[in-house]
Amino acid sequence: MNRSNGGQHERSIIRGSDFLQLDPSxxxxxxxxxxxxxxxxEAITDGRLPVGxxxxxxxxxxxxxxxxxxxxxEAYQRLADEGHLAGRGRAGTVVVAxxxxxxxxxxxxxxxxxxxxxxxFPGEPGADVFDVLRDQPARIDLTPxxxxxxxxxRAAWQRxxxxxxxxxxASALGYGDPRGVPALRTAxxxxxxxxxxxxxxxxxxxxxxxxxxxxxxxxRVLVGEGIGTVAVEDPGSLGVRQxxxxxxxxxxxxxxxxxxxxxxxxxGTGAPAVLLTPAHQFPxxxxxxxxxxxxxxxxxxxxxLVIEDDYDAEHRYDRPPAPALRSMLAxxxxxxxxxxxxxxxxxxxxxxxxxxxxxxxxxxxxxxADLGNAALPQLVLAELMASGEMERGLRLLRRRxxxxxxxxxxxIRAHLPGARVHGAAAGLHLTITFPAGLGTGTGDADLAAAxxxxxxxxxxxxxxxxxxxxPGLVLGYAAVRGSALTEGIAILGRLLRETTAHLGQADSSxxxxxxx
Length: 516
What we know:
Layout: H1 2-14, H2 32-46, H3 58-65, H4 69-81, E1 85-87, E2 93-95, H5 129-135, E3 140-141, H6 154-167, H7 182-196, E4 206-208, H8 210-224, E5 230-234, H9 238-246, E6 253-257, E7 260-261, H10 263-269, E8 273-276, H11 290-301, E9 305-309, E10 333-338, E11 350-353, H12 359-370, H13 375-386, H14 389-415, E12 420-422, E13 429-433, H15 444-453, E14 456-457, E15 459-460, E16 472-476, H16 482-515
Parallel strand pairs: 3-14, 5-6, 5-8, 8-9, 9-10
Antiparallel strand pairs: 1-2, 4-11, 6-7, 10-11, 12-13, 13-16, 15-16
């Protein structure tokens, strides 16, 4: 008897469905079909079941609600008769139309909205400036930082994924090491040794969600150790500066010249740490010269810490590879890299190779940030790297990117003859500066804003500079086809000529007025 009561109690508890949180105890007596049809109609009307949604099979829903299948069939049929549902054979029953709702009462026309606080131009860029700019429509996107995404090795990725899933033990689907799966750390160690001259134990590598998270983890470690200042290159990445500041560090600027960061001026800041892009400085494209490297290593050996963002190191065309700083002084260099420029930013996969004294602290920050990256994408990437597909893809990208770089340089010569080109020997972007300026009262952000109005998206160089700097633009070329590159530069040239002509007319008018 007690066993029977327990069974009845259990059945009353589990009666109901996760689907729309349906509970037949809410239905009136002898009105189950009306109740179910009404609940489904409400869900279609308020958008919880949008057009295209598939409903549970009648047998499944009836079992979950512990009602007869006829109750569910009748409710579905009523909504089908009303034109809201339709049977799609093996695809099941789907929503095909929503009930009409009364149109809202007309209101007085609203005033034109003010530009949102995070609008990319004009003014100082806000924390969300890159998100805002990314959402702006443009026919030709010359923003820097993207490889040719059409070259992503989809077929190779699918093969690697099938291989991983075929051989994966069930235990690998549980929680893992916050440093990342051993297979990927081993593949990264081999990649660093082969392409960057770095000898690394896989146990010392921490897999991250891209370089952005790598910088965040390092900043949190440094702040926890009482280091609240990280010097940065100037000009240097606005995005990196924003991330460092978000995590509580100040970012004094250190000038960059043709040989890279001025180490003598770095000493003058008193900063205990510096973040730099020595292999291909962003945005100028210079390589940290040999003498400067030795100066930097002496500074680091005296107690300084270096965060090496290995930006664009693999994408070089007209110069030999630059050795990684980590290979010169492992005890004082945090080395960071990612596959965002090798494969795609959407993979959100990067790594840190911390100095040995900081490894445990970085692992702890990663553990409490997210317990580690998702394991399956790591395993697929490890398979892709071990198979050689990533290196083959890089060779393809270099050829394609070189051609697009050449196309952009030719277009700049033709349409922006007064511009000076920087960083052409490597990378995924060019920086151009205008030594003669853009005219009184006109800045590079104004030119970038005008370009966006004409369907061309780019970065003003001033975004990436903390100190006064000649006006310029940072122009990505890797993700844009040749004809669009030429058209985009032609539009920039026309806008610059129009701006110059307008200013010339204004100056002539002012001079004429003064002479009278």
